Amino acid sequence: MIRWGEERRSADPGYFCRLVVQEAEQPVWIVSDTRRHSDLQWFWSRYPDRCQTVRVEAVEQTRRERGWQFTAGIDDAESECGLDGGVAFDWTIHNDSGAQRLEEQLGGLLSLARERAGA
User: Fold this and answer.
1) In Å, how far from its chain's centre is CA 32?
2) What CA dihedral angle connects 47, 52, 82 and 88, to 10 degrees?
3) For the chain, N or C: smaller number of CB within 10 Å?
4) Is Cytoplasm given among the entry's keywords (predicted)?
5) 3 state DSSP class of 33
């Protein structure tokens, strides 16, 4: 499956991005799984004034406490860490604390989404 996706992406970097938006009619889209610079470039080039990038991160200790274990060849692949550098994210959400802190961080982003949706 990964090889198939990589072949598609190599032939056409916007292949999966177009699939995501082709029938979307909502005023606000949350694309939750962009993993490569080419994905971000595709959205930025087509929607330059409407994109907000959000990075959700947790320190390694928190990730381990949640059951994550590093797997070479997977966790260090572009699909997992391709956006770890070279991107100035509009929002960074630190997902190490409890629900209250997470909700506080998401408040500004939620307000922006409501504003853009006209709510």
Assistant:
1) 5
2) 110
3) N
4) yes
5) coil
In angstroms and rounded to an integer, the radius of gyration of the C-alpha atoms of the chain is 16
Please work out, in degrees rounded to the nearest 5, the angle formed at the alpha carbon of residue 12 by the alpha carbons of 7 and 16. 85
Contacts of 80 by beta carbon, 8 Å cutoff, 6+ apart: 35, 74
Q: Convert the pLDDT of each residue in 72-84 to its tens digit.
A: 988 888 878 888 8
> How many Å apart are CA 2 and CA 61, to the nearest integer?
28
d(CA 114, CA 59): 30
User: Both tokens of residue 17?
Assistant: 């991005």
* Closest residue by Cα to residue 102 from 45, 54, 51, 31: 54
Sign of CA dihedral 102, 76, 30, 48: positive
Count of helix runs (H) and strand runs (E) in the chain = 6, 2
User: Domains along the chain?
Assistant: 2-117 (3.40.50.300)
Read off the pLDDT of residues 23-62 as tens digits, 9 standing for 90 and up. Answer: 888 889 888 888 889 899 999 999 998 999 999 999 999 9
